[in-house]
Amino acid sequence: MKKLFTIIFSFIVCLCFSQTKQQLIDSIIQINRVDSDCVGYACVVSTQYKRFQKLKDKLSDNELIELSKHDNPTIRIYASIELIESNKGNVSKLLSSELKKNERVQTFEGCIIDKESTSSVIYHKYWNKIRMETLSKTDGNNYEQDIAMKKRLANDLTMEKLDSVIIYSKKDIDWLLYDRAFDNRKHKDIYLSRIEELAFNGNNAYAFDYLKKHYSFKYSEKLNNYLITEFPTVKFQTENEVFYLHSFIEILLESENEEFKQIAMDKLKTEEIWKKHKGWFKTTLKKHGITL
Description:
By secondary structure, the chain is mostly helical. It contains 16 helices and 3 strands. 29% of the residues are buried.
């Protein structure tokens, strides 16, 4: 018991006073969670977040860059977030690196503890950073602020690079990253062959909707043919594919084409995976006056 007390006391003394860089790294890894600066109902600054702030103050820029390559995803993400916020990191390289690693990390922000892909954390850290920067410099109502943020996302060169990384990646990327990448802007025409591949071979509803929105005349026949002949036979099985399925159902229902509406109904009758999210799907159907 005395020995245990000594160990605990020594740890507390080390934690409160003169921790080395490695001790701080080890203590962050021990919790192994990326906390924001506002967690819990009281929006407090957590001990985990404070640990990284202490570590950050001891690091050179080169050391911070090295930590963004660390084996542990929590350390990597904390270091990458700091590089993004301080404008010291190459964000597209950070994103590409995390896509290759294809790992997830536990996060704690507000009242939500979640498990997120590290690539999504990197992408959204920059995506949200430039939105908030724009918001802080924009006067006016919510509509004007929203327009200003959309314009910034569309014209920011780093954001364009991140979207390019997402579109050309061969990894199975979180659906929301595709949603962002195709919503941010109309991309250069040289992207079209890759977007076609995602839409028609990868059954990616966000790529499909992008072509429908920006190139409806050019791809009209191919889009309709896919919905009539290909979509009914596609098997949607993964978590990402549930979101694709939902988006395709919305596209079919919003067309106001009776044949397309029937295709949507028939698809839901033959698929099982959507039933795990049936409340979401039924809300969509109800919006169009449909009960399944």
